[in-house]
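S., here's the first fold you wanted:
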Amino acid sequence: MSDIRTMEEFCEPAYGERSLGDVVPAVAAALGHTLDGDPRGLDLPGASSYVVFLIDGLGANLLRRHAEVAPYLASLLPTSTIGTAGVPSTTSTSLTSFGTGLVPGGHGLVGFTTRVPGTENLLNALIWDADVDPIEWQPHTTTFTRLQALGVRVSVVNKREFLGSGLTVAAHRGADYVGVDRVGERIAAVVAASAEAPSLTYVYDGDLDWTGHRWGVDSSHWLQQLAMIDHEAEQLREALPADRRLLVVADHGMVDVPQDDRIDVAADDALGSGIFLIGGEARFRHLYCVGGAVADVVDTWRATLADRAEVLTRAEAIGRGWFGPVDPVVLPRIGDVVVACRGTSAVLSTDGFPYETRLIGMHGSLTDDEMLIPLLVD
């Protein structure tokens, strides 16, 4: 924890060291192969096969806070590493960094919803849009493809509904896809896929994140789901032979947002002035401005939100390294102004995203609870 840098109460992404994009290159090194040089800050023990279990929404702080509910996963903390998500700390951005080894400014999935350049439309990276080619949106060769070319069998074990989805194609193409829907068949599929050596088997579970959004991370519902995930992870470890390594990671953490800490753009005409499109999500907004309005938008949002959020121009956010080096093609996908919430605040846009009023747990910003992720090796 002491070597994770903080800046103005925010946690900086540890790109090139211990970010989610560094995981697969580190696994490759542990399997005896090299992708993009040394993995630097992330050093994993050697093995012939690796299973990476990604638990959506399991922040490192949440796991520490509720260690008694997840005894197996918590038992791995003392001998493991804490890493970071990228910015924003959201699923589509994180999963694409994981699958490509690139920073968000490189792979181009820079938010849950982002502007399709040249239009007034948003791309929802989880649902996707049939008019947007995922290979054109994210054209870089994935780490999965490159590992397969090196003779490493790479498998993705995930729900059947995600096969061929825009996000799967953008982030995880090149792997053998195994569609499963239940815990038992998921474990069996992982054991079978990882039997070949060398191999990397990636398995995903999104139930904890869904529960946090719906009920909050301080709810009994979330704690029950965490206990179930812990049991699943332990079952998976027990089902795997001893010579196969299990690496448990997350894509981001989560914070609960109380009703009195929510600002709705739709209820404040001043906040909507000069903006033609609002993207991102409630904890991390992309604001796309009409010509010449950026300075006024920044001034208005800073004055209104005060210490509840950091309001930056695109150039300022890039200058802070939030997205890593940004490809010129990716630049217009980032808001002219970006808004990263502090504490437990959130900026809702009920006109464009009415479902946000129903969410309790949220993520996307740069607080420790959202950014810090466990990298647990067993």
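And the second, which I think is the more interesting of the pair:
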Amino acid sequence: MSNLDLKPSPTLCGGREDVTARPVHELLPSKNVPLGESTVVRRLLPSIRRRMIGAWCFVDHYGPDDIADEPGMQVAPHPHMGLQTVSWLHDGEVLHRDSLGSLQTVRPKELGLMTSGRAIAHSEESPREHARLLHGAQLWVALPDAHRHTEPTWEHHAELPRVTHHGIDATVVLGELDSAASPGTAFTPIVGADVTLAAGASGRLPIEPDFEYAALTMSGEAEVDGVRLAPGSLLYLGCGRRELPLRADVDSSFMLLGGEPFEEHLVMWWNFVGRSHDEIAQAREDWMTGERFGEVRGYDGAPLAAPALPPVPLKPRGRAR
């Protein structure tokens, strides 16, 4: 799960200054970004309007793409620091390899959770024999200072808890929702849930008033708090709700992302989350010299080279420009 931008802009995020303490409807813009050899993703977070949603700091949505005659996702080994990656699929498979020696195929509605901690490297690819469609989301979670230097780990959870309410079926991917807790390791109060609505479904999902939330539409046209969302849309909802009204005229699904506003100020550049320019620069140097991040074995290709750092120092600031 990578940012493959050859000229990545530094993203300055964190802090509570720009958290919307009341319920809002803020549709965040997206941009198309190439990912690997043949996949294009819709990058929804960070955006010019908003940098984080709770501890969620990066959101890409891709597909559904017909890859029957294509290689599909092919992302060479690359590093991560200071974050968790969440791999979530609706269609297709992704083969994960990392510098811990992990080798795991992640399938639809299974959680692939990688905690980079101080340093890890991994690759992602569609298996040689793969399904026709590829559709999913790739997300990052910022690690708080107390845990960002932890040892790296990889988790795969094929069975996840579900919450059901009047035609609404929510799979709890990370954190907690309505007393159901994901087995995935979380380091901040957070929730990530895949919510499915059958055609004609209408109901309310209980949520935490102190969390900020957003909805990422995966398929169909779910109506979230009265706002109808096309696939690939990310609607920021702010804080202050105790329940979220939902309905759908057609079979639909969306990801509910939320958590307590992230207090710490961060610097995010390329595939690193840190606290200062020097920290990011050292991580880049360590990757390029083969230090610290380890080696991903078994991938057929060279690792990604890190882009050049911007000419001005990176500084941690607030959540919006």
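Why I say that: Confidence is low (pLDDT under 50) at residues 317-321. The radius of gyration is 18 Å.

Talk tomorrow,
H.
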